[in-house]
Amino acid sequence: MTDLKSNNIPLMLGVLVGFATGIYANRLGRKKTSVSPQKILEQVKKTFQEETPIQGAWINTFTQPFQKFAFKTQVYSGGISRIEDRQLIQYKFLADAKTGGVLDLQRL
């Protein structure tokens, strides 16, 4: 007769390792990540440069709260300037810190 306990040890070890891996993967998946302000600024500059060259650009490296209706998130604020019709025109933008998407763009 074989010992049932010795046959189940690899199975129990596999279940424990799988359980621990699942917990670890769940925590990694829930971890809040954000896009760096430098990456956001590079994307905004790239988009603006498709039309005309830009003269300057900046972005705050700290987030600020933003709410529009029921939507709440953290945003980076920044600005960009370029020449339009021989005049320096400035734009202000707000970008979502989690996704990097531009939420608001205003011509000043």
Rounded to the nearest angstrom, the distance between the terminal CA atoms is 85 Å
User: Which strand-content bin applies to the residues?
Assistant: 35-45%
Number of strands: 5
For the biggest sheet, the summary is: 5 strands, antiparallel
- Considering DSSP H and I runs of 4 or more, what fraction of the residues is helical? 25-40%
Weakly predicted, low-confidence segments = none
Shape designation: elongated
Order of H and E elements: HHEEEEE
If you average the pLDDT, what whole number results? 84
Q: Rounded to an integer, what's the Rg over CA atoms?
A: 25 Å
Class by SSE composition:
alpha+beta
Number of helices: 2
Summarize the structure.
The chain has 108 residues and is an alpha+beta fold.
Structure overview:
37% of the residues lie in helices and 38% in strands. Strands 1, 2, 3, 4 and 5 form a five-stranded antiparallel β-sheet that branches. A hairpin with a 2-residue loop joins β2 (64-68) and β3 (71-84). The protein is built from two helices and five strands. It is α+β, with helices and mostly antiparallel strands. It is elongated. The N and C termini lie far apart (85 Å).
Helix and strand topology:
Blueprint: H1 4-30, H2 37-49, E1 54-59, E2 64-68, E3 71-84, E4 87-96, E5 102-107
Antiparallel strand pairs: 1-3, 2-3, 3-4, 4-5
